[in-house]
Amino acid sequence: MAGDWNVLQDLDKDTSNYSAKNKKRAHDNILDMIESLDLVDIWRAINTDTKRFTWRGPGLKQSPLDYFLILSDLEPFVKNVDMDISYMSDHYPVFLTLQFYNQIKELKLAKLLGNYEKDPSELLKSEIKILENELIQHREKIVTGIMARAKAILAAEGEK
């Protein structure tokens, strides 16, 4: 889950020019959700002591109010999580990159693969090929849709 949570997680690590924690009840609700769903604030998990902000407000207040909460099971697949700057908003974008293919080998899916008589590496290669083909088909559908819309727009503009 990602979004503008508008809630601080840690007053000391996540603020600049704040005098007190904001929205205590919302903060407690988010902590309950994190615990009950086994979620992780992945930015803070990776950058334990780094101070960076996604929101700047009056009085030079700054805090990371925008963040990703991911299932803890997805942590091994996180390739990158970062924040950027924005010139059009008081909130800055956050980015999360997950990588699954290379991590599968490292996770040693013995439990899943133990039931197969095939060589596990061959099974993984087969699954990856299927996923690659599905991705190619999905991309082709998207490109076809974009091209059809572009042709319709050009035809409509030509009629004017």
TrEMBL record:
InterPro entries linked to this entry: Endo/exonu/phosph_ase_sf (IPR036691)
SUPFAM superfamilies given in the database record: DNase I-like
Entry protein name: Endonuclease/exonuclease/phosphatase domain-containing protein
